[in-house]
């Protein structure tokens, strides 16, 4: 069984996937958002490719743990996924500071600012998914 990890934003959706044993997360791609139909179509293609119906979606809570406008946006998008892609199971995971951690990791790896911009959402999805996988023991 695999699981796809998503870092959902206004302009992009970072995608990561677990290995079959659900031990490690690898970056897959960054979907450049154009329309809801295209976004969902590509997501459905990735779910078919990796043979999963499970999505782990990063929940961008406020630093004090409350749900704000960003988290409401992500919840609404998750509801659309469930409505449009039959049989999809959603798990939400606290993603506070995932983008910060991904950025620090890329800087430590000496990745240029231009290249970081292209992969940051995918890397954030990796951090979100790996955090979930690690929590499972």
List keywords for this structure.
137 residues; alpha/beta; Nucleotidyltransferase, domain 5; five-stranded mixed beta sheet; 4 helices; 47% helix; 23% strand; globular; Putative pre-16S rRNA nuclease; hydrolase; nuclease
Describe this structure in words.
The chain has helices at residues 36-49, 69-84, 98-108, 113-135, and strands at residues 4-8, 12-18, 25-32, 54-59, 89-94. By secondary structure, the protein is α/β, with parallel strands linked by helices. The protein is globular and about 40 Å long. The mean pLDDT is 88.
Secondary structure elements and their pairing?
Elements: E1 4-8, E2 12-18, E3 25-32, H1 36-49, E4 54-59, H2 69-84, E5 89-94, H3 98-108, H4 113-135
Parallel strand pairs: 1-4, 4-5
Antiparallel strand pairs: 1-2, 2-3
Helix pairs in contact: 3-4
The tally of strands reads 5
The CATH level-2 architecture is identified as 2-Layer Sandwich
Portion in helices? 40-55%
Mean pLDDT score, rounded? Answer: 88
Largest sheet: 5 strands, mixed
Query: Which homologous superfamily in CATH is the superfamily?
Result: YqgF/RNase H-like domain
- Distance N terminus to C terminus? 16 Å
Q: What is the highest CATH level, the class?
A: Alpha Beta
Q: Identify the overall geometry.
A: globular
Strand order of the largest sheet: 3-2-1-4-5
Question: How many domains comprise the coordinates?
Answer: 1
Give the H and E element order. Answer: EEEHEHEHH
Q: Structural class of the secondary elements?
A: alpha/beta
- Secondary structure tally, helices: 4
| Beta content | 15-25%
Low-confidence stretches: none
What is the rounded Rg? 14 Å
GO molecular function, one term: hydrolase activity, acting on ester bonds
Organism: Selenobaculum gibii
Function: Could be a nuclease involved in processing of the 5'-end of pre-16S rRNA.
Protein name: Putative pre-16S rRNA nuclease
């Amino acid at each position: 069984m695999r699981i796809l990890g998503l870092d959902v934003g206004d302009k992009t959706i970072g995608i990561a996937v677990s290995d079959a044993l659900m031990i490690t997360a690898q970056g897959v791609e960054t979907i450049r958002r154009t329309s809801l139909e295209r976004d969902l179509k590509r997501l459905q293609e990735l779910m078919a490719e990796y043979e999963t119906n499970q999505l782990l979606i990063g929940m961008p809570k406020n630093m004090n743990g409350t749900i704000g406008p960003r988290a409401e946006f992500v919840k609404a998008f998750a509801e659309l996924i469930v409505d449009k892609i039959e049989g999809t199971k959603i798990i939400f995971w606290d993603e506070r500071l995932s983008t910060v951690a991904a950025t620090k990791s890329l800087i430590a790896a000496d990745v240029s600012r231009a290249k970081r911009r292209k992969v940051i959402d995918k890397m954030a999805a990796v951090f979100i998914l790996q955090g979930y996988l690690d929590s499972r023991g």
